[in-house]
Amino acid sequence: MLSVQQLEAGYGESVILRDVSLTVEPGRVVCLMGRNGVGKSTLVKSIMGLLKARKGSVSFKGVDVTKWAPGERAKKGIGYVPQGREIFSQLSVYENLRIGLEAHPNSAKRRSKEIPREAIEKFPILPTFYKRRGGDLSGGQQQQLAFARALISEPELLVLDEPTEGIQPSIVDDIQDVIRSIRDEGKTAILLVEQSLDFVRSVGDRFYIMEKGSIVWQGGREDLDDLAVLKHLTI
Fold it and tell me: Tens digit of pLDDT per residue, the chain (235 long)?
């Protein structure tokens, strides 16, 4: 599904990612962990085409997309919920969701004025907010909106960058349930960047840990033991 091979990227003269490789298989939840500032969001931006790779490659469904623009990757089937949500605060909830349709590979659905029911059924509270501005929602409600906006394009890969950051526990539980349901449906793979060990253990199939811009550990749920956690994730 997704294959990142020997990726190098950075900002200006600074190299942040060094020889990073990871894979996400269809229908699986792959979790990327690491302390703050180790390069997790830089890797996500490189996967989405928001940051140009200096070396290495990003392939999706067997196609090299390393030089593709973000919009091209989205229409290929990659959905993205960025850190901080990045909803349009002055637009209504409905208008924010409509923007998500622009990435749908089906042009008829892109032209449709209706929000697909299946895209928001995992967040049933959103239709009650259709006329409210995105900026008037709580942080947790904005996260649900950003999540639903990404799902509207029916992606085959969903990239989630710190989806539980700064939101109330009840919404964290809801997001956990949504990720589990997506995994159980088996139609969409997920790359999840997350710091909460309990959260990733509850939803993940495979795990990668980053340090100083490199992958330093990888394994399955049964391999993510206290030794790995103490060595790479504790301060």
Answer: 899 999 999 998 899 999 999 999 999 999 999 888 899 999 999 999 999 999 999 999 999 999 999 989 988 899 999 887 788 888 999 888 888 877 776 655 655 667 777 777 888 888 899 899 988 988 888 888 888 888 888 899 999 999 888 888 888 888 899 999 999 988 899 999 998 888 998 999 999 999 999 999 999 888 887 777 777 776 5
Minimal CA–CA distance to 30: which of 22, 40, 21? 22
The amino acid occupying position 147 is F
Q: Does domain 2-37+47-232 have CATH number 1.10.10.10?
A: no
In the three-class reduction of DSSP (H, G, I as helix; E, B as strand; rest coil), residue 228 is classed as: helix
Instruction: Indicate the DSSP class of residue 134.
Output: G
Residue of 172, 178, 177 lying closest to 119 (CA atoms)? 178
Model's pTM, two decimal places? 0.90
The 8-class DSSP code of residue 24 comes to E
